[in-house]
Amino acid sequence: MSVQYSDFSWKALLAGSIFILIFGLVMQLVFVSFAAGQMILAQHFPDWTKMTRAVVYALGLVLFFLTMGLGGYITARIATRKIMLHGTLVALLTGGVSFAQSLSVGGLTLFGALFFILGIPFTLVGCWYSIRRLKTTAKQA
């Protein structure tokens, strides 16, 4: 399996990466808002602290999955060849930017490494869904 320069869609790589970075920042704002609300709730209802913390972490995972999946979907819609390769490159690029930024701020954490690794399959799920939708649309036409 050889990859040629003409197989790359720079537009797909750029669109998917920019979407993930911008939408990811918006989703980070949503997550931080919920985390702040959880802290306020924990002060007033200390018995609920563990449950509300678990809900906030679950929300963070869902927002991350949504961000990476939609980025993969957008990448796949624009790329015409080697769609999964484009999705992997977008995940590595955006994950690398995010990981490098978190390293400069707080050092290496288990969650940072885990989210970097999980970004690849989450993005590929978005690519796979786009491919599946294109195939079902082509069959219906």
Q: Overall 3D geometry? A: elongated
Overall tally of structural domains = 1
> What is the straight-line distance between the termini?
31 Å
Topology pattern, helix = H, strand = E = HHHH
Class by helix and strand content? mainly alpha
Helix content: over 70%
Mean pLDDT equals: 88
The count of β-strands is: 0
* Largest beta-sheet details: none
- Can you count the helices? 4
Poorly predicted runs: none
Strand content: under 5%
Please tell me how large the radius of gyration is. 18 Å
Topology, please?
Elements: H1 10-44, H2 49-78, H3 83-106, H4 110-140
Describe this structure as you would to a colleague.
The chain is built from four helices and no strands. With 141 residues, the chain is mainly α. The protein has one domain (9-140). Helix 2 (49-78) packs across helix 3 (83-106) and helix 2 (49-78) crosses helix 4. The mean pLDDT is 88. The chain crosses the membrane at residues 12-34, 54-76, 83-104, 110-131. Keywords: Membrane, Transmembrane, Transmembrane helix.
What labels would you give this structure?
membrane, 85% helix, transmembrane helix, 141 residues, 4 helices, mainly alpha, transmembrane
In short:
With 141 residues, the chain is an all-alpha fold. It contains 4 helices and no strands.
